[in-house]
Amino acid sequence: MNDAGSSYATSPVMSDGSGQLDTFPKLLLDRAKNLGSKPAIREKDYGIWQTWTWSQVADEVRAFACGLAAKGFERGDKIAIIGDNRPRLYWAMCAAQSLGGIPVPMYQDSVAQELQYVVEHAEVRFAVAEDQEQVDKLIEIRERYPNLELIIYDDARGLRSYSQEYLYAFEDILELGRRFDADHPGFFLDQVHTGRGADTSVILYTSGTTGTPKGVVLTHDNVLISARNGIERDQLGQDEDVLAYLPMAWVGDHVYSYAESYVAGFCVSCPESSATVLNDLREVGPTFFFAPPRIYENILTTVMIRMEDAGWLKRKVFHYFMALARRVGSRILDRKPVALKDRLLYKLGNLLVYGPLKNTLGFSRIRLGYTAGEAIGPDIFDFYRSLGINIKQLYGQTEASVFVTMHPDGEVRLDTVGTAAPQVEIKIADNGEVMYRSPGVFQCYYKNPEATAETKTEDGWVHTGDAGYLDADGHLKIIDRAKDVGKLNDGSIFAPKYIENKLKFFPYIKEAVAFGDGRDYTVAFLNIDLEAVGNWAERRNIPYASYQDLAARKEVYDLLQGCVEQVNRDLAADPHVASSQIRRFLILHKELDADDGELTRTRKVRRRFVADRYDKLVEALYSGDTHCEIASEVTFEDGRKGSLRADLAIRDVSPVERLSDAAD
Amino acid sequence: MTSARQLGDILLKVEDVSLSFGGVKALEHVSFDVREREIRAIIGPNGAGKSSMLNVINGFYQPQEGTIMYRGRSHRHMRPHEAASEGIARTFQNIALFRGMSTLDNLMTGRNLKMKKNLLWQALYLGPARREEIEHREFVEHIIDFLEIQAIRKTPVGRLPYGLQKRVELGRALAAEPSLLLLDEPMAGMNTEEKEDMCRFVLDVNDEFGTTIILIEHDMGVVMDISDRVVVLDYGRKIADGMPDDVRTNSEVIEAYLGVMH
Questions:
Q1: Which residue of A129, A138, A567, A656 has the fewest CB atoms within a 10 Å radius of its CB?
Q2: Phi/psi-derived region of residue A197, left when phi > 0, alpha when psi is between -120 and 50, beta in every other case
Q3: Is A139 in the same domain as A256?
Q4: Total domains, chain A
Q5: Is the domain of A495 the same as that of A591?
Q6: Which tens digit of pLDDT belongs to each residue from A600-618?
Q7: Does residue A270 share a domain with residue A177?
Q8: What is the CA radius of gyration of chain A?
């Protein structure tokens, strides 16, 4: 299948003395030697899945590394990687690592200004970009930061008329590299074998809910030992199929799509475009799936909408079996005793509902799914587990090379994030903050010793910033961000995320922000989900002109009031949070957006920023006003700014008495 | 950026064309030329004869006077199928797609003229016909990739929002591998973001495939930004012809079309 592999078969890969596969490039060469003709990576292009074997990948990486060397890339140089998940961008990372360089993957939807901070801070000399969109940003950066010497692009479309002398096509570098390799035959292997596990392998900039991004410095050892531990815990093998669709700058993608693929030797598939992920998911049918809660939410919302549109009989069957699944599905998955009748009914449900549904979602073959990034709504979590999809929670951080805790099989519990991952120690600080120590612990924040000292102790313990505790079974429970957990004026605990997640389970609510710390009662901002509410409005013949128009409609307020009342009933049932019931809410006139700084790039709400920005609305919620006018600035995708005015209605919700309705 | 570009030879020459419907004079003695690789805009107020001009070029209308010179050959008038087989493709002001068919199938219809096997071969889907189909599919997939419409490959066109339908229509025109592409108000009815996307695609088509483009557009901003030269029509007469900047400052144009300078 390939002729390039033969050169590796004869080269003494393992004879560098140490014999250890302690860096990414060494691992790659070993994979090429032992798994040469097995698929390493796939990409859907022109409607067809294109495949590269391990030896083809090794060949490309070798050529690209030599090309970089020919262009003056030296050990310790940083190379920016920016774009959607593309095989060539992963190869560029490994190529840079082969030369002792350090890849710095960046969020592809960042605007030039945000990128520039990272490029300058990391002192990037070379950049590999996916396409014109990214190249344009890099060119803009280079005009202000000439130390960015070379920009290499993957997709040439639209770049034909660009005449910048520092701009190269990926193919140009490969070509250059093959010639360089021919002239310096021993160079590449020498470089690879000079690398050590203790060398820095990557700098990942955290999106950060506050302040400027920080560059987390990780070594090959950090990432690869963590990956090995993760693989061992989950028993991952060569035959897994994984979809690489999360931002390459995120540590989750770096470990699951890159490190674990290299360590376990499984194949990773890159979707055709970010818009086709759900389709591609179905085609690939991954055995292992990693996603932040939002993705699971989105998939669930899509299912719920489509079911609303289905015929009467289908709806009945669906709801009947989903109720059954909710009752016994998780128990069956955890191999706990279940009545024979229910077991048989569940089998029937599998035939009629769960099987077809999983097939539509692309989860037919799934063995294991993880969710991480933030707390997942219990109802969402239940939904997947009740279908027999083994989805588990993982608690991790960039600073830990992902793994801190994860659910062991059979011990999946909604209210915890699991037990310590292999080789991870956990302790709770006096103020309730969770701390950990592991082989994956980062070296430092790049060029930021103060922040490093604040986060990491001398003996290697890391502050997570999360409040939590360990229960009797060694499971870690996270309550909230340590700094977000507050108190209502009556002294009861106020955990905003807990309330927001309850709200967000309703398909109609896309985002929610709850306020209550230091106040008499809880109030909330809601964002409608345009797709779900739009669909709902269409079915009821409610006309609307725009997002803003729809969000302001009385009928929509009535709809969401119903959701809020349901949440209040749930809250009332739990004495710890009963006083956090939502008394007043409003529906925002615009979607919270990362471009406006309201969400992080991983789409977490920047609570404080939102509170400051909509200060006027918060005050109105705590006054007796029935409406409030607001003008806010919006940033369009091209970076221009505009202004949006609205007069928002405010709704009162009467709280549920603690005991009377608790039985519901 | 655009004015500095090197334009090729004359590809199309409209000479002294007049067209009338009964007593209504749609075009009066209009002449202009289009060079290879050029983006040429035709602008003018409502009823100025812009769409009529496009319809004359691709043979929908037969002018009473004048000739169309295309690739050095003079036509008293073009017939639509001649125009199509000579590499002229177009999109319409009101979208004209097969609404019940998928994006992919709509684009495949754009390959129709390139299909050489007869109906029987195609129906049996044997040997050569199969190979041919695969080749065409491959070409169409390049267009899908180019226009970034992978996610709607299999969606019936009727279900797509307007902006995307316009993009699919552009795709179908591109599927015919045109050397001259006529776009009738490609950005009409779009929001700012969709307009910018469409501009990008028009420029990319021109840049990537070297396609010559004649563009009718209402939005002055768009026209001035992306075209090499502009023809201005008013009441069927040509009142100006030149670089965007010259046209912008032409007093007759300002009076007839823009009203006030901005």
A1: A656
A2: alpha
A3: yes
A4: 3
A5: yes
A6: 877 788 888 999 999 999 9
A7: yes
A8: 26
Which residue is closest to B150 within chain A, CA to CA? A276
The answer to whether residues A363 and A504 belong to one domain is no
Spatial separation of the C-alpha atoms in residues A599 and A543, rounded to whole Å = 29
Q: What is the mean pLDDT of residues B68-78?
A: 81
Yes or no: say if A521 and A504 are a contact pair by the CB < 8 Å rule.
no
Nearest CA in chain A to B200: A158
Contact at CB, B208 and A158, closer than 8 angstroms: yes
| Dihedral sign computed on CA atoms, order A241, A243, A247, A252 | negative
- For A74, the token pair is 């030296």
Asked if A272's CB is within 8 angstroms of B150's CB, the reply is yes
A157, A160, A276 member nearest B151 (Cβ) = A276
Please say if the pLDDT value at position A128 is more than 70: yes
**Given A243, A268, A286, which residue is the final one in a domain?**
A286
Highest mean pLDDT among A254-263, A302-311, A376-385: A254-263
CB contact under 8 A, B207 and A158: yes
Strand partners, A526: A512, A587
Q: What is the CATH number of the domain that holds A347?
A: 3.40.50.12780
Examine residue A664 and state whether it is found in any structural domain, yes or no.
no
Contact B207 A279 (CB under 8 A): no
Separation between Cα atoms, residue A55 and residue A386, nearest integer Å: 41
Residues of chain B with CATH 3.40.50.300: 1-87+178-262
Q: Among A286, A315, A337, where does a domain finish?
A: A286
A541 and A516 in a common domain: yes
Residue A565 burial (10 A CB sphere; 0-12, 13-18, 19+): middle
Provide the CATH topology of domain B1-87+178-262: Rossmann fold (3.40.50)
Q: How far does the CA of residue B145 sit from the closest CA of chain A (Å)? A: 6
* Lowest-pLDDT range of A115-129, B131-145, B241-255: B241-255
- Which residues of chain A does B203 touch, with a Cβ-Cβ cutoff of 8 Å? 158
- Asked if the structure places residue A14 within a domain, the reply is no
End-to-end CA distance of chain B: 21
CB nearest to B138's CB, from A46, A157, A638: A46
Residues A109 and A155 in one domain: yes
- The reply to whether A278 and A295 lie within a common domain is no
Residue of chain B with shortest Cα separation from A162: B207
Residue A174 has pLDDT above 80, yes or no: yes
By C-alpha distance, the chain A residue nearest B104 is: A47
Checking if the pLDDT of A26 tops 90, the result is: yes
Q: How far is B107 from chain A (nearest CA, A)?
A: 14
Domain housing A640 = 486-652
How far apart, in whole angstroms, are the C-alpha atoms of residue A79 and residue A92? 9
> Could A160 and B208 be called an inter-chain contact, meaning their C-beta atoms sit closer than 8 Å?
yes
* Interface residues from chain A to B (CB-CB < 8 Å): 45-48, 157-158, 160-161, 272-273, 275-276, 279, 636-638
**How many cross-chain Cβ pairs, A to B, lie less than 8 Å apart?**
38
